[in-house]
């Protein structure tokens, strides 16, 4: 079993340095260098041709839409757009690489020197972007016959080349020091912001669970004042939550090794979703291992300044500006908006408000009860089986006095269990607030009769003692009474 330090101890003794490499499949209709379609989920090896299979004599042609999408990404990330760039061959052997090289960019990326600004716990962080370059995705290896889905223990491997050649953008940050104990949260906030930017540009569906957005997490530790340590690279992390967990785990693991005087090996590692741990992959190659050289079958690209500026005019309202606008419209504090954004709840809350709920009510449900349940289930908020329209309907029933918060939480149980919408669940489970005045009066009279001393205190003006009677009435009505109405009834009867 891998020895781990306590997280608090690790970040007290060591300074983490982050680096994040994010791969994004572009949502083009055809592949990067050929006309094959890019529909997700097709039968294996039905979306291939001589070009994306690397057959002799097949010549690539660059996808203009993919180049435009990459320039849009660079502009949104405050990058400088190159006036001259070209593709290169990145040589390495792996079964899911049909050509035994990947057409990528190396010394001349399309976009360089940008930044993304995020906020965690009210503190701003600028994550600097080193490069944004365009390449093609690889195929997919399926290891079967084992229990883990990985090559170790598998009895055979199958190859699907449908994904080979899909346009892939790689966004590489510069090292991010100074995050300290908040490094996991900063990593998650950056990937969240990046995902939101890409979604706003409509260049990718950024579905991490389908692999259209994948993150490699680099991390090293050093003692304060010392040089940066040796980094590891946790590959293909496929959820926001897992980005945060992988950083936290590597900090604990690496600090334990360093405390024992052991060295950190520069290697790739795999993240295990079930346990939150990382495991060794392979030793990490350097650029020279890939023997880059210019792609002889593709021309140099020289994006004109007029073209770049015409694309800049197509930029939509970016997430940071949208948040500032919504923060003002919704009347939230900066800290509240940070919480909304870092929880990945902005679009959910926006849709809930559009469906009729007040902003504060929408924030309350998504950052409170629903966020708690998502954490318990190990899910992202947007993966919960409740819709913004249903949350708005639930709050509407609370506003109408048909539900109180306690009953509403029970209604959520039914909605998440697939029993229907809020009104349907409340009706089927008999959860609506008791509105029968006669039934309420009977319950209040019984509570007063059973608690004569308390009733006498209330008659004497000690209205705060009404809480005892309210509790009795709520118990008698199985929580389905309106506490405010019950209190008013008690005071009226004993005044």
From TrEMBL:
InterPro entries: Asn/Gln-tRNA_amidoTrfase_suB/E, Asn/Gln-tRNA_Trfase_suB/E_cat, Asn/Gln_amidotransferase, Asn/Gln_tRNA_amidoTrase-B-like, GatB, GatB_Yqey_C_2, Gln-tRNA_amidoTrfase_suB_CS, Gln_synth/guanido_kin_cat_dom. Residues 347-494 form the Asn/Gln amidotransferase domain. Keywords: ATP-binding, Ligase, Nucleotide-binding, Protein biosynthesis. It is an enzyme of class 6 (ligase). Its EC number is 6.3.5.-. The keyword Nucleotide-binding applies. It catalyses: L-aspartyl-tRNA(Asn) + L-glutamine + ATP + H2O = L-asparaginyl-tRNA(Asn) + L-glutamate + ADP + phosphate + 2 H(+); L-glutamyl-tRNA(Gln) + L-glutamine + ATP + H2O = L-glutaminyl-tRNA(Gln) + L-glutamate + ADP + phosphate + H(+). It comes from the Bacteria. Signal peptide: none annotated. PROSITE patterns: GATB (PS01234). Belongs to the GatB/GatE family. GatB subfamily. Heterotrimer of A, B and C subunits. Allows the formation of correctly charged Asn-tRNA(Asn) or Gln-tRNA(Gln) through the transamidation of misacylated Asp-tRNA(Asn) or Glu-tRNA(Gln) in organisms which lack either or both of asparaginyl-tRNA or glutaminyl-tRNA synthetases. The reaction takes place in the presence of glutamine and ATP through an activated phospho-Asp-tRNA(Asn) or phospho-Glu-tRNA(Gln). This is Aspartyl/glutamyl-tRNA(Asn/Gln) amidotransferase subunit B. It comes from Salininema proteolyticum.
């Amino acid at each position: 079993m891998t020895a781990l330090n306590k997280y608090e101890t690790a970040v007290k003794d060591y300074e983490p340095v982050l680096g994040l490499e994010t791969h994004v499949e572009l949502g083009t209709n055809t592949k990067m260098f050929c006309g094959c379609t890019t529909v997700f989920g097709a039968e294996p090896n039905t979306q291939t041709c001589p070009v994306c299979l690397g057959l002799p004599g097949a010549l690539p042609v660059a996808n203009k839409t993919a180049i435009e999408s990459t320039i849009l990404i660079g502009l949104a990330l405050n990058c400088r757009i190159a006036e001259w760039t070209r593709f290169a061959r990145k040589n390495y052997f792996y079964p899911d690489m049909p050509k035994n090289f990947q057409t990528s960019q190396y010394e001349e990326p399309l976009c360089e020197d940008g930044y993304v600004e995020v906020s965690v716990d009210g503190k701003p962080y600028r994550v600097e972007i080193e490069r944004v370059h365009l390449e093609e995705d690889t195929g997919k290896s399926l290891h079967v016959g084992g229990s883990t889905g990985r090559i170790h223990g598998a009895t055979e491997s199958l190859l699907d080349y449908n994904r080979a050649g899909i346009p892939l953008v790689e966004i590489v940050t510069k090292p991010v020091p100074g995050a300290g104990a908040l490094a996991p949260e900063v990593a998650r906030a950056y990937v969240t912001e990046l995902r939101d930017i890409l979604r706003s540009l409509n260049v990718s569906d950024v579905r991490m669970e389908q692999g259209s957005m994948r993150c490699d997490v680099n991390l090293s530790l050093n003692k304060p004042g010392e040089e940066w340590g040796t980094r590891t690279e946790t590959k293909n992390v496929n959820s926001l939550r897992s980005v945060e967990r992988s950083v936290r785990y590597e900090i604990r693991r690496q600090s334990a090794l360093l405390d024992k005087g052991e060295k950190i090996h520069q290697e790739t590692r795999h993240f295990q979703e079930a346990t939150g741990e990382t495991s060794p992959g392979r030793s990490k190659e350097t650029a020279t291992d890939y023997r880059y050289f210019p792609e002889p079958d593709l021309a140099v690209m020289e994006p004109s300044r007029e073209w770049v500026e015409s694309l800049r005019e197509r930029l939509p309202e970016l997430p940071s500006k949208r948040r500032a606008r919504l923060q003002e419209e919704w009347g939230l504090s900066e800290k509240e908006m940070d919480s909304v954004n870092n929880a990945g709840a902005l679009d959910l809350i926006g849709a809930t408000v559009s469906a009729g709920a007040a902003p504060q009510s929408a924030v309350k449900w998504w950052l409170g009860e629903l966020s708690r349940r998502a954490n318990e289930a190990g899910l992202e908020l947007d993966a919960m089986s409740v819709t913004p329209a249903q949350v708005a309907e639930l709050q509407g029933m609370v506003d109408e006095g048909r539900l109180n918060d306690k009953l509403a939480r029970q209604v959520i149980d039914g909605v998440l269990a697939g029993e229907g919408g809020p009104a349907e669940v409340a009706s089927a489970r008999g959860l609506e607030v008791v509105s029968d005045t006669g039934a309420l009066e009977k319950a209040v009279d019984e509570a007063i009769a059973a608690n004569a001393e308390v009733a006498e205190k209330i008659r004497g003006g000690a209205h705060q003692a009404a809480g005892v009677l309210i509790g009795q009435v709520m118990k008698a009505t199985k929580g389905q009474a309106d506490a405010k109405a019950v209190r008013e009834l008690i005071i009226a009867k004993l005044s």
